[in-house]
Design brief:
Blueprint (H helix, E strand, L loop, with lengths): L5 H19 L2 E6 L2 E7 L1 H16 L18 H14 L2
Antiparallel strand pairs: 1-2
Helix pairs in contact: 1-2
């Protein structure tokens, strides 16, 4: 179905990779007294490029299942005493 568009898709992928590469080198600029000044790395653009890269690598993958968590229901005084006695008996 997409075979007819394979050349265009390859070109789009290449352009996407170029955009990501350029995002990692992005520099923020500001205007000060009518002159353009370098304000250092543009961290927002770099993070956006990283996010796009992760999305590109994980596209089409199934989401991992969330780990099951055990809910703590509390313990009675007798249960705590029994656990301490068991630990002492085990030599812990």
């Amino acid at each position: 179905m997409l075979d007819a568009y394979s050349d265009e898709l390859a070109e789009l992928l290449e352009e996407t990779i170029v955009v990501i590469r350029e995002a990692y080198a992005a520099v923020k600029t500001v205007v000060v007294d009518k002159s353009i000044e370098d304000a250092g790395p543009d961290h927002y653009a770099r993070l956006a490029g990283g996010k796009l890269l992760v999305q590109l690598f994980t596209a089409g993958r199934a989401l991992p299942k969330a780990a099951e968590t055990k809910e703590f229901k509390g313990a009675t005084y007798q249960e705590i005493e029994a656990a301490l006695v068991a630990q002492q008996a085990a030599g812990l």
